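seq:
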Amino acid sequence: MFKYFLKTSLISLFLFGCSSATEIKSLQGEIFGTTWQVKYVDNQIDPEDLNKSLIYELNRINKVFSTYIVDSYISKVNRGEASEFENNEFLKLINLALKIKNQSNGFFNIYINNQYDLNAIAKGYAVDNLAKILNSKNITNFMIEIGGEIRFEGFKGAKNWNFAVIEPSLSKFIHKRFDVKRNLSIATSGDYRNPGHIMNPLTDLPIATKLMSVTVLNETSTAISDAWATALYATPNNEWMQLANKNNIAAYFIYRESEKTVSSSTSKWNELIE
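struct:
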């Protein structure tokens, strides 16, 4: 289980049913203190063998990045028993996190109180690694979800994959539905179910914001979507839209305005969601 320095909402995207005309196979389980699922279209791969490959990879990643496992690599680094420079995978994810930290003006931070915590990017990274496994087995139509971080590729039979953003005001379940017409990664951040628990990484104080949730798309990387959803939610009022557009981030914001729940999106979001 990963430890959160900036907690993201785990179930902020809802997946709709699949076409009954196409056989959609499904695998699922638990990891990182949350759930995972894979839905895919394929008639050649043995589901049991695929399941073993996916579980092996999830457990391997957990042994590298979980702060709750005493002998994980990140735990050893935080105790000074190992160096971040000795593990290429660990160093690669740190470098990506540092790049996003710089781009986000410090609102994404994986090094707090002299301790590494990669939770806000590692779930997305795990999704990307599972996608590589599916691609290596020539599975091109699939959906992967780990604790709300999602990767879509191809189609669900003759139809597009689709998702919905949950209504953060909780006045209704679904805020808006979207069709996925290209390969996309999706991540959402918000604290509407537990107000005040998300901290500003620059002040270590709860965030005061009118933003209720932010959903981020990326065409190639769930890790990037994961990190940017966290960073944008932590950004002060009236700056998140500017920051997202400056970095060409596809983001959808739901926020409070004059006691009403309203939404807006970046130009990049409008390009990717038709």
